[in-house]
């Protein structure tokens, strides 16, 4: 019985880990890093008609849609929502784990700017040395 409980716990842990995976690592077909630094990671996302990803996570981010589209997002609890977007539309997300699917008949392309946290602290301005009066 102890082994069964241990195996169940390990499977739950593995499932939770899979739900929180980086899309760039688990879905290289659809996700490409364009720019990355200490503040942001910019992803180019492309889905063909009726293509689906795998469950993954994003931190707080802003999406800018390059094409019109119709997508479905399935959440870890099994609930889902559909979004209809227009080219040029920007959308904020506080971050989530989801499984996206292009349910439209045309390719869906967007840029996703993932935020990494607070910007670095500014360095204090250097103090200028006081000039001595000429003697």
CATH domain fold name: Jelly Rolls
Mean pLDDT, to the nearest integer, reads: 85
CATH homologous superfamily, by name? Jelly Rolls
Number of helices: 2
* Main CATH class: Mainly Beta
Tell me which CATH architecture applies here: Sandwich
**Elements, N to C (H/E):** HHEEEEEEEEE
| Shape designation | elongated
Defining key terms:
single chain, 135 residues, alpha+beta, 5-stranded antiparallel beta sheet, elongated, Jelly Rolls, 4-stranded antiparallel beta sheet
Structure write-up:
Mean pLDDT is 85; it is low at 4-19. This protein has helices spanning 2-19, 23-26, and strands at 31-36, 40-47, 56-58, 61-65, 69-74, 80-85, 90-93, 96-102, 108-115. The protein has a single domain, classed as Jelly Rolls (Sandwich), CATH 2.60.120.10. Helix content is 16%, strand content 39%. It has a 5-stranded antiparallel β-sheet with strand order 1-2-9-4-7, with no helix packed on it. A 4-stranded antiparallel β-sheet has the order 3-8-5-6, with no helix packed on it. The chain starts with a helix and ends in a 20-residue tail after the last strand. The chain is α+β, with helices and mostly antiparallel strands.
Give a short summary of the structure.
The protein has two helices and nine strands. With 135 residues, the protein is of the alpha+beta class. The strands form two sheets. The protein has a five-stranded antiparallel beta sheet with strand order 1-2-9-4-7, with no helix packed on it.
List strands and helices in order, with pairings.
Blueprint: H1 2-19, H2 23-26, E1 31-36, E2 40-47, E3 56-58, E4 61-65, E5 69-74, E6 80-85, E7 90-93, E8 96-102, E9 108-115
Antiparallel strand pairs: 1-2, 2-9, 3-8, 4-7, 4-9, 5-6, 5-8
């Amino acid at each position: 019985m102890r082994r069964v409980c241990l195996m169940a716990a390990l499977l739950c842990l593995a499932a939770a880990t899979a739900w929180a995976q980086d899309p760039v690592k688990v879905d290289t077909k659809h996700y490409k890093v364009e720019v990355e630094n200490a503040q942001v990671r910019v992803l180019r996302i492309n889905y063909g008609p009726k293509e689906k990803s795998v469950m993954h996570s994003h931190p707080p981010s802003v999406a800018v849609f390059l094409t019109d589209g119709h997508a479905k997002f399935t959440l870890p609890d099994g609930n889902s929502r559909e979004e209809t977007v227009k080219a040029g539309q920007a959308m904020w997300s506080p971050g989530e784990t989801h499984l996206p699917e292009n349910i439209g008949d045309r390719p869906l392309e967007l840029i996703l700017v993932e935020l990494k946290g607070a910007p670095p602290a500014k360095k204090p301005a250097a103090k200028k040395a006081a000039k001595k009066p000429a003697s």
